[in-house]
Amino acid sequence: MADSPTPKALLLPEILKKIFELSGDGCNALNARVCKDWSDEALSVIWHDVDAKNLFSLLAPLGTAPPIGFTRELEEEDWDRFERYSFKVHVLRFSGQYNISLFKDLGHGRRRLDLLPNLQTLYGPPPTPLLAYPSVQNLLLENCNEQQLIAWLAIISRRMCHVQRLTIERGIPPSDQLLSSLVSTLRKTLALKELKMPMSYINDNTFHAFASLPNLRSLQASDLYRIPTGPGSEHLSLRSLISKAFPSHPFPSLVALGIELNFSTAGIVIPRLNVSRTLRALRMRSWCNESSDACSSLFEVIQKACPGLEHLEIARTDIGGTIRFSTLDGIQCFQNLTSLSLCNFIPGPNHTFALRPLLDALAGLESLTLCDAFPSPNFVHLPSSLATIASVLKNLKTLSIRISAGSAMPVSKFPVPFLKLQKLHLGASSISRPTEVAMYLSRLLPPGCKLEVPVFLERTKWSIVQTWVPLLVQARVEARLKARMETERALGPAFATE
What we know:
- Helix 3 runs antiparallel to helix 4.
- This protein has 18 helices and 15 strands.
- It starts with a helix and ends with a helix.
- The chain has a 15-stranded parallel β-sheet with strand order 1-2-3-4-5-6-7-8-9-10-11-12-13-14-15.
- By secondary structure, it is of the alpha/beta class.
Protein backbone atom coordinates (compact mmCIF):
# COMPACT_ATOMS: atom_id res chain seq x y z
CA MET A 1 0.00 0.00 0.00
CA ALA A 2 2.91 2.32 0.76
CA ASP A 3 4.22 1.90 -2.82
CA SER A 4 0.93 2.91 -4.47
CA PRO A 5 0.84 6.33 -6.21
CA THR A 6 -2.06 7.70 -4.18
CA PRO A 7 -0.26 8.00 -0.79
CA LYS A 8 2.76 9.57 -2.48
CA ALA A 9 0.57 12.15 -4.19
CA LEU A 10 -1.14 13.00 -0.91
CA LEU A 11 2.24 13.82 0.62
CA LEU A 12 2.94 16.61 -1.88
CA PRO A 13 2.42 19.95 -0.07
CA GLU A 14 0.84 21.63 -3.10
CA ILE A 15 -1.82 18.94 -3.50
CA LEU A 16 -2.47 18.74 0.24
CA LYS A 17 -3.00 22.48 0.43
CA LYS A 18 -5.53 22.46 -2.41
CA ILE A 19 -7.46 19.63 -0.76
CA PHE A 20 -7.40 21.19 2.71
CA GLU A 21 -8.56 24.58 1.36
CA LEU A 22 -11.80 22.88 0.30
CA SER A 23 -12.39 21.57 3.84
CA GLY A 24 -13.65 23.36 6.93
CA ASP A 25 -11.65 24.06 10.07
CA GLY A 26 -13.22 21.09 11.85
CA CYS A 27 -12.12 18.65 9.15
CA ASN A 28 -8.66 20.19 8.97
CA ALA A 29 -8.28 19.87 12.73
CA LEU A 30 -8.73 16.12 12.23
CA ASN A 31 -6.40 16.15 9.21
CA ALA A 32 -3.70 17.75 11.35
CA ARG A 33 -3.64 14.63 13.56
CA VAL A 34 -2.88 12.16 10.73
CA CYS A 35 0.87 12.74 10.40
CA LYS A 36 3.45 15.52 10.56
CA ASP A 37 3.26 16.36 6.84
CA TRP A 38 -0.50 16.65 6.99
CA SER A 39 -0.33 18.57 10.25
CA ASP A 40 1.85 21.35 8.84
CA GLU A 41 -0.35 21.91 5.81
CA ALA A 42 -3.68 21.59 7.67
CA LEU A 43 -2.65 24.06 10.38
CA SER A 44 -1.38 26.49 7.74
CA VAL A 45 -4.83 26.49 6.13
CA ILE A 46 -6.65 26.83 9.48
CA TRP A 47 -4.58 29.81 10.60
CA HIS A 48 -4.15 31.47 7.20
CA ASP A 49 -7.41 33.47 7.54
CA VAL A 50 -8.43 33.87 11.18
CA ASP A 51 -10.67 35.97 13.41
CA ALA A 52 -8.83 38.16 15.92
CA LYS A 53 -10.76 36.60 18.81
CA ASN A 54 -9.52 33.11 17.92
CA LEU A 55 -5.96 34.36 17.53
CA PHE A 56 -5.73 36.38 20.75
CA SER A 57 -7.44 33.66 22.77
CA LEU A 58 -4.26 31.61 22.25
CA LEU A 59 -2.63 33.93 24.78
CA ALA A 60 -5.36 34.14 27.42
CA PRO A 61 -9.15 33.91 27.74
CA LEU A 62 -11.05 36.90 26.38
CA GLY A 63 -14.01 38.61 27.97
CA THR A 64 -17.37 38.27 26.26
CA ALA A 65 -18.71 41.77 26.91
CA PRO A 66 -17.40 44.64 24.74
CA PRO A 67 -14.92 46.17 24.73
CA ILE A 68 -13.08 42.85 24.44
CA GLY A 69 -9.95 42.35 26.53
CA PHE A 70 -7.91 39.70 28.33
CA THR A 71 -9.37 38.35 31.56
CA ARG A 72 -5.92 37.85 33.15
CA GLU A 73 -2.33 38.97 32.79
CA LEU A 74 -0.21 37.35 30.08
CA GLU A 75 2.53 34.92 31.10
CA GLU A 76 5.68 33.68 29.35
CA GLU A 77 4.23 30.27 28.46
CA ASP A 78 1.29 32.00 26.77
CA TRP A 79 3.69 33.42 24.20
CA ASP A 80 5.16 29.97 23.54
CA ARG A 81 1.72 28.81 22.40
CA PHE A 82 1.14 31.99 20.38
CA GLU A 83 4.49 31.72 18.58
CA ARG A 84 3.60 28.32 17.13
CA TYR A 85 0.82 29.82 15.03
CA SER A 86 1.65 33.52 14.55
CA PHE A 87 3.82 32.80 11.49
CA LYS A 88 0.87 31.13 9.74
CA VAL A 89 -1.50 34.14 9.91
CA HIS A 90 -1.86 36.02 6.62
CA VAL A 91 -5.39 37.44 6.98
CA LEU A 92 -6.72 38.88 10.26
CA ARG A 93 -10.38 39.86 10.73
CA PHE A 94 -11.78 42.02 13.53
CA SER A 95 -15.40 42.03 14.66
CA GLY A 96 -16.68 43.93 17.69
CA GLN A 97 -15.01 46.52 19.90
CA TYR A 98 -11.64 45.85 21.53
CA ASN A 99 -10.26 47.37 24.72
CA ILE A 100 -7.15 49.47 24.20
CA SER A 101 -5.57 47.60 27.13
CA LEU A 102 -5.49 44.42 24.98
CA PHE A 103 -3.14 46.03 22.46
CA LYS A 104 -1.01 47.47 25.27
CA ASP A 105 -0.61 43.96 26.71
CA LEU A 106 0.36 42.65 23.26
CA GLY A 107 2.88 45.45 22.79
CA HIS A 108 4.52 44.95 26.18
CA GLY A 109 4.74 41.16 26.02
CA ARG A 110 5.63 40.49 22.39
CA ARG A 111 8.95 38.86 21.63
CA ARG A 112 9.40 40.49 18.21
CA LEU A 113 8.52 43.85 16.75
CA ASP A 114 6.50 42.12 14.06
CA LEU A 115 3.83 40.35 16.08
CA LEU A 116 2.50 38.61 12.93
CA PRO A 117 5.45 38.53 10.50
CA ASN A 118 3.51 37.24 7.48
CA LEU A 119 0.40 39.39 7.84
CA GLN A 120 -0.88 40.67 4.48
CA THR A 121 -4.57 41.56 4.94
CA LEU A 122 -6.51 43.37 7.69
CA TYR A 123 -10.31 43.55 7.89
CA GLY A 124 -11.92 46.12 10.21
CA PRO A 125 -8.99 46.64 12.62
CA PRO A 126 -9.01 49.36 15.29
CA PRO A 127 -6.34 52.03 14.75
CA THR A 128 -3.15 50.66 16.29
CA PRO A 129 0.50 50.86 15.15
CA LEU A 130 0.94 47.33 16.50
CA LEU A 131 -0.38 45.82 13.24
CA ALA A 132 0.93 48.47 10.86
CA TYR A 133 3.51 46.43 8.96
CA PRO A 134 5.02 47.27 5.58
CA SER A 135 4.01 43.73 4.51
CA VAL A 136 0.28 44.55 4.79
CA GLN A 137 -1.05 44.96 1.24
CA ASN A 138 -4.82 44.91 1.81
CA LEU A 139 -6.60 47.10 4.36
CA LEU A 140 -10.36 47.30 4.85
CA LEU A 141 -11.60 49.97 7.30
CA GLU A 142 -15.22 49.54 8.33
CA ASN A 143 -17.41 50.68 11.22
CA CYS A 144 -14.87 53.38 12.08
CA ASN A 145 -15.86 56.78 13.38
CA GLU A 146 -14.20 59.87 11.96
CA GLN A 147 -11.42 60.09 14.56
CA GLN A 148 -10.54 56.44 14.03
CA LEU A 149 -10.33 56.97 10.28
CA ILE A 150 -8.09 59.99 10.71
CA ALA A 151 -5.88 57.97 13.06
CA TRP A 152 -5.65 55.14 10.52
CA LEU A 153 -4.77 57.53 7.69
CA ALA A 154 -1.93 58.91 9.81
CA ILE A 155 -0.68 55.37 10.49
CA ILE A 156 -0.79 54.53 6.78
CA SER A 157 1.22 57.65 5.94
CA ARG A 158 3.94 56.77 8.43
CA ARG A 159 4.18 52.99 8.30
CA MET A 160 2.09 51.47 5.49
CA CYS A 161 2.95 53.42 2.36
CA HIS A 162 3.20 50.15 0.40
CA VAL A 163 -0.47 49.20 0.85
CA GLN A 164 -1.98 48.15 -2.49
CA ARG A 165 -5.70 47.81 -1.73
CA LEU A 166 -7.55 50.26 0.52
CA THR A 167 -11.28 50.10 1.29
CA ILE A 168 -13.15 52.63 3.43
CA GLU A 169 -16.74 51.75 4.27
CA ARG A 170 -18.56 54.56 6.04
CA GLY A 171 -21.81 56.27 5.13
CA ILE A 172 -21.55 59.45 7.26
CA PRO A 173 -20.46 62.53 5.25
CA PRO A 174 -16.78 63.25 5.93
CA SER A 175 -15.46 66.47 7.44
CA ASP A 176 -12.88 68.75 5.82
CA GLN A 177 -10.28 67.45 8.27
CA LEU A 178 -10.88 63.84 7.19
CA LEU A 179 -10.71 64.71 3.50
CA SER A 180 -7.51 66.68 4.06
CA SER A 181 -5.98 63.68 5.85
CA LEU A 182 -7.06 61.45 2.97
CA VAL A 183 -5.37 63.66 0.38
CA SER A 184 -2.17 63.76 2.44
CA THR A 185 -2.16 59.97 2.73
CA LEU A 186 -2.82 59.37 -0.97
CA ARG A 187 0.20 61.45 -1.91
CA LYS A 188 2.41 58.94 -0.09
CA THR A 189 0.76 55.65 -1.06
CA LEU A 190 2.11 55.49 -4.59
CA ALA A 191 1.88 51.68 -4.66
CA LEU A 192 -1.92 51.79 -4.32
CA LYS A 193 -3.66 49.66 -6.98
CA GLU A 194 -7.28 49.39 -5.78
CA LEU A 195 -9.28 52.03 -3.92
CA LYS A 196 -12.88 51.79 -2.72
CA MET A 197 -14.74 54.40 -0.68
CA PRO A 198 -18.07 56.27 -0.39
CA MET A 199 -18.88 58.69 -3.17
CA SER A 200 -19.12 61.49 -0.58
CA TYR A 201 -15.34 61.27 -0.18
CA ILE A 202 -14.78 62.46 -3.73
CA ASN A 203 -14.32 66.18 -4.29
CA ASP A 204 -11.96 68.32 -6.34
CA ASN A 205 -8.96 67.78 -4.03
CA THR A 206 -9.33 64.02 -3.52
CA PHE A 207 -10.06 63.41 -7.21
CA HIS A 208 -6.84 65.22 -8.14
CA ALA A 209 -5.00 62.97 -5.69
CA PHE A 210 -6.59 59.86 -7.22
CA ALA A 211 -5.59 60.98 -10.70
CA SER A 212 -1.94 61.31 -9.65
CA LEU A 213 -1.58 57.73 -8.38
CA PRO A 214 0.67 56.01 -10.95
CA ASN A 215 -0.40 52.42 -10.21
CA LEU A 216 -4.10 52.84 -9.46
CA ARG A 217 -6.00 50.22 -11.48
CA SER A 218 -9.43 50.26 -9.82
CA LEU A 219 -11.44 53.14 -8.30
CA GLN A 220 -14.87 52.32 -6.88
CA ALA A 221 -17.02 55.00 -5.22
CA SER A 222 -20.65 54.51 -4.24
CA ASP A 223 -23.16 55.30 -1.49
CA LEU A 224 -25.61 52.62 -0.45
CA TYR A 225 -28.22 55.10 0.74
CA ARG A 226 -28.69 58.41 -0.96
CA ILE A 227 -31.62 60.72 -1.70
CA PRO A 228 -32.01 61.37 -5.45
CA THR A 229 -30.97 64.91 -6.32
CA GLY A 230 -30.84 67.12 -9.34
CA PRO A 231 -27.98 67.82 -11.73
CA GLY A 232 -25.03 69.73 -10.36
CA SER A 233 -25.29 68.24 -6.88
CA GLU A 234 -21.94 66.44 -6.98
CA HIS A 235 -18.94 67.62 -4.99
CA LEU A 236 -16.82 67.20 -8.13
CA SER A 237 -16.87 70.39 -10.20
CA LEU A 238 -16.28 70.45 -13.93
CA ARG A 239 -14.09 73.51 -13.60
CA SER A 240 -11.52 71.53 -11.59
CA LEU A 241 -11.14 68.98 -14.41
CA ILE A 242 -9.95 71.59 -16.88
CA SER A 243 -7.84 73.56 -14.43
CA LYS A 244 -4.04 73.58 -14.62
CA ALA A 245 -3.89 71.82 -11.26
CA PHE A 246 -5.42 68.67 -12.73
CA PRO A 247 -2.74 66.22 -13.98
CA SER A 248 -2.12 66.36 -17.72
CA HIS A 249 -2.03 62.54 -17.89
CA PRO A 250 -4.44 61.43 -15.15
CA PHE A 251 -5.04 57.83 -14.09
CA PRO A 252 -2.24 56.33 -16.21
CA SER A 253 -3.05 52.74 -15.11
CA LEU A 254 -6.81 52.87 -14.47
CA VAL A 255 -8.60 49.73 -15.69
CA ALA A 256 -11.86 49.69 -13.68
CA LEU A 257 -13.99 52.66 -12.58
CA GLY A 258 -17.22 52.72 -10.59
CA ILE A 259 -18.67 56.13 -9.82
CA GLU A 260 -21.96 57.93 -9.20
CA LEU A 261 -22.56 61.04 -11.30
CA ASN A 262 -25.40 62.47 -13.28
CA PHE A 263 -25.07 61.62 -16.95
CA SER A 264 -24.27 65.15 -18.12
CA THR A 265 -21.36 65.44 -15.66
CA ALA A 266 -20.17 61.93 -16.50
CA GLY A 267 -20.06 62.87 -20.18
CA ILE A 268 -17.32 65.38 -19.34
CA VAL A 269 -15.52 63.44 -16.62
CA ILE A 270 -15.01 60.16 -18.50
CA PRO A 271 -13.04 61.55 -21.50
CA ARG A 272 -10.91 63.59 -19.11
CA LEU A 273 -9.88 60.69 -16.91
CA ASN A 274 -9.34 58.11 -19.68
CA VAL A 275 -6.70 60.01 -21.61
CA SER A 276 -4.44 56.94 -21.42
CA ARG A 277 -7.18 54.74 -22.98
CA THR A 278 -6.60 52.03 -20.36
CA LEU A 279 -10.19 51.76 -19.06
CA ARG A 280 -11.75 48.31 -19.56
CA ALA A 281 -14.60 48.24 -17.01
CA LEU A 282 -17.00 51.11 -16.26
CA ARG A 283 -19.85 51.22 -13.73
CA MET A 284 -21.92 54.42 -13.82
CA ARG A 285 -24.92 55.19 -11.61
CA SER A 286 -27.04 58.33 -11.65
CA TRP A 287 -29.32 59.44 -8.84
CA CYS A 288 -31.02 62.02 -11.04
CA ASN A 289 -34.02 61.92 -13.36
CA GLU A 290 -32.22 61.24 -16.62
CA SER A 291 -33.78 61.69 -20.06
CA SER A 292 -33.45 59.49 -23.13
CA ASP A 293 -31.30 62.12 -24.82
CA ALA A 294 -28.93 62.25 -21.84
CA CYS A 295 -28.55 58.46 -21.94
CA SER A 296 -27.88 58.36 -25.66
CA SER A 297 -25.35 61.19 -25.35
CA LEU A 298 -23.57 59.38 -22.54
CA PHE A 299 -23.30 56.17 -24.58
CA GLU A 300 -21.82 58.08 -27.48
CA VAL A 301 -19.25 59.76 -25.23
CA ILE A 302 -18.25 56.45 -23.63
CA GLN A 303 -17.93 54.78 -27.01
CA LYS A 304 -15.53 57.48 -28.26
CA ALA A 305 -13.55 57.91 -25.04
CA CYS A 306 -13.28 54.22 -24.11
CA PRO A 307 -12.58 52.23 -27.30
CA GLY A 308 -11.23 49.23 -25.36
CA LEU A 309 -14.17 48.93 -22.96
CA GLU A 310 -15.17 45.32 -22.19
CA HIS A 311 -17.53 45.64 -19.18
CA LEU A 312 -20.22 48.32 -18.97
CA GLU A 313 -22.84 48.90 -16.27
CA ILE A 314 -25.26 51.83 -16.51
CA ALA A 315 -27.90 52.35 -13.84
CA ARG A 316 -30.67 54.85 -13.21
CA THR A 317 -32.15 55.01 -9.72
CA ASP A 318 -35.26 57.00 -10.61
CA ILE A 319 -38.44 55.28 -11.78
CA GLY A 320 -40.40 58.38 -12.65
CA GLY A 321 -39.09 58.70 -16.19
CA THR A 322 -39.06 55.94 -18.77
CA ILE A 323 -36.15 55.22 -21.09
CA ARG A 324 -36.75 52.61 -23.77
CA PHE A 325 -34.16 50.39 -25.39
CA SER A 326 -35.09 51.79 -28.79
CA THR A 327 -33.70 55.22 -27.81
CA LEU A 328 -30.25 53.89 -26.87
CA ASP A 329 -28.69 54.29 -30.28
CA GLY A 330 -25.17 54.90 -28.95
CA ILE A 331 -24.91 51.58 -27.15
CA GLN A 332 -24.92 49.66 -30.43
CA CYS A 333 -21.39 50.94 -31.14
CA PHE A 334 -19.84 48.83 -28.34
CA GLN A 335 -18.71 45.89 -30.43
CA ASN A 336 -15.95 44.86 -27.97
CA LEU A 337 -18.24 44.47 -24.96
CA THR A 338 -18.29 41.11 -23.22
CA SER A 339 -20.44 42.21 -20.24
CA LEU A 340 -23.40 44.63 -20.21
CA SER A 341 -25.71 45.62 -17.35
CA LEU A 342 -28.64 48.03 -17.72
CA CYS A 343 -30.66 48.96 -14.65
CA ASN A 344 -34.08 50.65 -14.86
CA PHE A 345 -34.42 50.71 -18.63
CA ILE A 346 -37.79 49.46 -19.88
CA PRO A 347 -38.13 47.15 -22.90
CA GLY A 348 -40.77 49.20 -24.71
CA PRO A 349 -44.28 48.40 -26.01
CA ASN A 350 -43.07 45.48 -28.14
CA HIS A 351 -40.44 43.63 -26.15
CA THR A 352 -39.07 41.42 -28.89
CA PHE A 353 -38.58 44.12 -31.49
CA ALA A 354 -37.17 46.51 -28.86
CA LEU A 355 -34.51 44.03 -27.79
CA ARG A 356 -33.43 42.86 -31.23
CA PRO A 357 -31.73 46.09 -32.42
CA LEU A 358 -30.03 46.41 -29.05
CA LEU A 359 -28.52 42.93 -29.22
CA ASP A 360 -27.68 42.57 -32.93
CA ALA A 361 -24.55 44.72 -32.59
CA LEU A 362 -23.52 43.07 -29.30
CA ALA A 363 -23.18 39.49 -30.48
CA GLY A 364 -19.96 38.97 -28.49
CA LEU A 365 -21.61 39.43 -25.09
CA GLU A 366 -20.86 36.76 -22.49
CA SER A 367 -22.81 38.37 -19.64
CA LEU A 368 -26.07 40.37 -19.83
CA THR A 369 -28.05 41.89 -16.96
CA LEU A 370 -31.37 43.66 -17.49
CA CYS A 371 -32.53 44.52 -13.98
CA ASP A 372 -34.65 46.98 -12.02
CA ALA A 373 -33.70 48.72 -8.79
CA PHE A 374 -37.32 48.88 -7.65
CA PRO A 375 -40.16 46.38 -8.18
CA SER A 376 -42.18 47.81 -11.03
CA PRO A 377 -44.18 46.23 -13.87
CA ASN A 378 -42.50 48.64 -16.29
CA PHE A 379 -39.25 46.67 -16.18
CA VAL A 380 -40.68 43.17 -16.67
CA HIS A 381 -39.80 41.32 -19.89
CA LEU A 382 -42.04 38.92 -21.77
CA PRO A 383 -40.93 35.25 -21.83
CA SER A 384 -40.34 35.56 -25.57
CA SER A 385 -37.41 37.85 -24.77
CA LEU A 386 -35.44 34.80 -23.64
CA ALA A 387 -35.79 33.20 -27.07
CA THR A 388 -34.78 36.48 -28.73
CA ILE A 389 -31.64 36.73 -26.59
CA ALA A 390 -30.76 33.07 -27.22
CA SER A 391 -31.05 33.47 -30.99
CA VAL A 392 -28.70 36.48 -31.09
CA LEU A 393 -26.16 36.06 -28.27
CA LYS A 394 -24.52 32.72 -29.10
CA ASN A 395 -21.65 33.18 -26.61
CA LEU A 396 -23.76 34.23 -23.62
CA LYS A 397 -22.74 32.50 -20.38
CA THR A 398 -24.61 34.52 -17.73
CA LEU A 399 -28.06 36.14 -18.02
CA SER A 400 -30.02 38.04 -15.38
CA ILE A 401 -33.51 39.22 -16.35
CA ARG A 402 -36.99 39.54 -14.86
CA ILE A 403 -39.66 37.92 -16.98
CA SER A 404 -43.42 37.93 -16.60
CA ALA A 405 -43.84 34.30 -15.55
CA GLY A 406 -47.54 34.82 -14.91
CA SER A 407 -48.30 35.34 -18.59
CA ALA A 408 -48.72 32.57 -21.15
CA MET A 409 -45.53 30.98 -22.46
CA PRO A 410 -44.73 31.30 -26.20
CA VAL A 411 -46.36 28.65 -28.40
CA SER A 412 -43.21 27.87 -30.40
CA LYS A 413 -42.13 24.32 -29.61
CA PHE A 414 -38.67 24.61 -31.14
CA PRO A 415 -37.07 27.92 -30.02
CA VAL A 416 -33.37 28.48 -30.68
CA PRO A 417 -31.71 27.35 -27.42
CA PHE A 418 -28.83 28.90 -25.53
CA LEU A 419 -25.60 27.19 -26.47
CA LYS A 420 -23.18 28.19 -23.71
CA LEU A 421 -25.39 29.59 -20.94
CA GLN A 422 -24.11 28.57 -17.50
CA LYS A 423 -26.34 30.63 -15.20
CA LEU A 424 -29.81 32.15 -15.62
CA HIS A 425 -31.08 34.44 -12.87
CA LEU A 426 -34.78 35.30 -13.09
CA GLY A 427 -35.86 38.34 -11.09
CA ALA A 428 -38.87 38.54 -8.78
CA SER A 429 -42.11 37.81 -10.59
CA SER A 430 -45.31 35.99 -9.71
CA ILE A 431 -45.91 32.61 -11.31
CA SER A 432 -49.23 30.87 -11.90
CA ARG A 433 -48.32 27.86 -14.11
CA PRO A 434 -44.95 26.47 -12.94
CA THR A 435 -45.16 23.34 -15.12
CA GLU A 436 -45.65 25.42 -18.27
CA VAL A 437 -42.76 27.70 -17.32
CA ALA A 438 -40.51 24.68 -16.66
CA MET A 439 -41.36 23.16 -20.05
CA TYR A 440 -40.56 26.41 -21.86
CA LEU A 441 -37.25 26.93 -20.03
CA SER A 442 -36.19 23.32 -20.66
CA ARG A 443 -36.36 23.96 -24.41
CA LEU A 444 -34.05 26.97 -24.06
CA LEU A 445 -31.45 26.00 -21.46
CA PRO A 446 -28.47 23.73 -22.13
CA PRO A 447 -27.49 20.87 -19.79
CA GLY A 448 -25.77 22.03 -16.60
CA CYS A 449 -27.21 25.56 -16.68
CA LYS A 450 -27.90 26.80 -13.15
CA LEU A 451 -31.34 28.40 -12.64
CA GLU A 452 -31.46 31.02 -9.87
CA VAL A 453 -34.31 33.03 -8.36
CA PRO A 454 -34.33 35.55 -5.47
CA VAL A 455 -34.03 33.93 -2.05
CA PHE A 456 -37.52 34.98 -0.96
CA LEU A 457 -39.01 33.08 -3.94
CA GLU A 458 -37.21 29.77 -3.36
CA ARG A 459 -40.09 28.37 -1.26
CA THR A 460 -42.80 29.40 -3.74
CA LYS A 461 -43.88 27.79 -7.01
CA TRP A 462 -40.49 28.72 -8.42
CA SER A 463 -39.04 25.80 -6.46
CA ILE A 464 -41.10 23.51 -8.70
CA VAL A 465 -39.55 25.14 -11.75
CA GLN A 466 -36.03 24.78 -10.32
CA THR A 467 -36.66 21.09 -9.65
CA TRP A 468 -38.20 20.20 -13.01
CA VAL A 469 -36.07 22.20 -15.45
CA PRO A 470 -32.82 20.15 -15.10
CA LEU A 471 -34.81 16.90 -15.25
CA LEU A 472 -36.61 17.98 -18.42
CA VAL A 473 -33.37 19.21 -20.01
CA GLN A 474 -31.71 15.88 -19.32
CA ALA A 475 -34.72 14.01 -20.69
CA ARG A 476 -34.53 16.02 -23.94
CA VAL A 477 -30.81 15.29 -24.27
CA GLU A 478 -31.41 11.57 -23.81
CA ALA A 479 -34.29 11.64 -26.30
CA ARG A 480 -32.09 13.31 -28.94
CA LEU A 481 -29.30 10.81 -28.30
CA LYS A 482 -31.72 7.90 -28.64
CA ALA A 483 -33.11 9.32 -31.89
CA ARG A 484 -29.58 9.70 -33.25
CA MET A 485 -28.68 6.12 -32.41
CA GLU A 486 -31.83 4.84 -34.11
CA THR A 487 -30.99 6.89 -37.20
CA GLU A 488 -27.49 5.45 -37.30
CA ARG A 489 -28.80 1.92 -37.10
CA ALA A 490 -31.35 2.54 -39.84
CA LEU A 491 -29.37 4.64 -42.32
CA GLY A 492 -25.72 4.37 -41.27
CA PRO A 493 -23.37 6.59 -39.27
CA ALA A 494 -22.38 8.79 -42.23
CA PHE A 495 -25.98 9.81 -42.92
CA ALA A 496 -26.66 10.49 -39.22
CA THR A 497 -23.57 12.72 -38.99
CA GLU A 498 -24.62 14.76 -41.95
